[in-house]
Each structure stands twice: as C-alpha cells, then as structure tokens.
Amino acid sequence: MSGCDGVVNLAGEPLVGDRWTPKRKQAIIDSRAVSTQKIVEGIAAATPQPGVLVNASAIGYYGTSETAIFDESSPPGHDFLAEVCQAWEKAAQTVTATGTRLVIFRLGIVLGMGGALAKMLPPFQLFAGGPLGTGQQWFSWVHRDDLVDFIVEALTDTSKSGVYNATAPNPVRMKELCDTLGKVLHRPSWLPVPDFALELLLGEAAELVLKGQNVQPQKTQGAGFQYQYSTIEAALQQILA
Questions:
Q1: How many CB atoms neighbour CB 200 within 10 A?
Q2: pTM over 0.90, yes/no
Q3: CATH architecture, range 6-240
Q4: What is the pLDDT of residues 55-86, one digit of tens each?
Q5: Pick from 42, 38, 125: nearest CA to 88
Q6: DSSP state of 132
Q7: How far apart, in whole angstroms, are the C-alpha atoms of residue 65 and residue 51?
Q8: Is residue 203 very low, low, confident or very high in pLDDT (cuts 50, 70, 90)?
Q9: Centroid of chain to Cα 203
C-alpha cells in the first residue's frame, strides 16, 4: 500500500446463498472485520501512507423496521447483521489513529445487472414475478453508478469523512419495487413468494429479503453527493435498457 493515494475496501463474504450456520456467521463477520483490520495494519506500515481509506458497511447496521426512518445519526440495531456492521465499522475506525482519513459507506441494496436484481429477474421473465413476503417491507437501494461516483468523490475530496448512507433518497416498499420492475419489463407482478417458502430455503438469511428498513441519506445529501438515479423507475429503466 506504500505510495497509494487511497484504499477502497468492499470485501465481504456473500450473505445470500448458504444458510446461516454458526460457522457461516463467523465467516461473514471475519471476512469483513478481520480483513478490514489487516488492511488497517497494512496502511499503518506503509511508507508513505495512503491518504484515505474508503470502507464499506451496510444499512443492516440499523436493524429492521416497517415504520422507523433511519439516517446516519440513528443508533445500531440488535440483530445479527447489525452486529456484523458494528464489528466491521469498529475495525475501520482504528485507521484514524494513523492519521489516514476514513470514509465509511453504509450500502443499501446495490442495483446493477448482477447481484440482487439478477436473482429477481428470471421469475418476471417467465411471467411469474411478484413481491417477496408481504410486500410491505422497505427496500433501500442505490444504483451502482451512483455508488461508484460516491467512492470516487470520497477518494478525491478531502472534506469527506465519517459515515454516509449510500442509498437513494427514495426508498420503496417491496411491492412498489416489483410493480415497477414488472412495468419496465412489460411483465405482470402478480405471484407473491410467501414468507415460509423463503424461510425454508434460506433459514435465518431470509430476513435479508423479508425485512427491511427505510434509510435516508441525510448526511450524504448534505455533503453534496449527487445522484444520477434518485427514483427506482429511472434506475431500473437504465439498468434494463
């Protein structure tokens, strides 16, 4: 890392795929907190040191709720993902002792042609799409291009430091997301996936899609970060064009 202008750390074991066994949970935590600590140690040993560490976290920090609104000043939640994010951020915070500037982005669901959206597309393409669970859970998202812009600005603008929510300013309920996805694809959104089916398939990991949070990027907007895609329809239109 010696001579690098900055370091960007987005590493972390995927949350969806395998069930959250105790071993799997430990891997999820270690892949974030331990790897971040190793990066901090590398920065401390570098000559000269990088000027900034841009480190990922996630909106899972806040826990889940159908009614609460969270911004960067909100306290952490108490579930597993909140514990993961707290450990992740704690490891990143130690870099400030080296004098390196720190920017932490709490990521919402990143929308691009891969990731979560890729998993949602096949049912819609087969005319069998619909919301997951009740459809009332909040879906706080960010377009991948906006996230890249945020990271570039964090690397280059020395006035940026601390924690920012990397989410669009207009979160939506799951039903609205699926209705909009159907509209963009010219497909119906009519076949909901029941809670129990996802819980049987994913176990505790089902909470990623069955629960959500309404996250507002209050500090992000106040710091002057600009969005190319602030509404879900504009984002999906661009991605699926």
A1: 10
A2: yes
A3: 3-Layer(aba) Sandwich (3.40)
A4: 999 999 999 999 999 999 999 999 999 999 99
A5: 38
A6: B
A7: 37
A8: confident
A9: 21
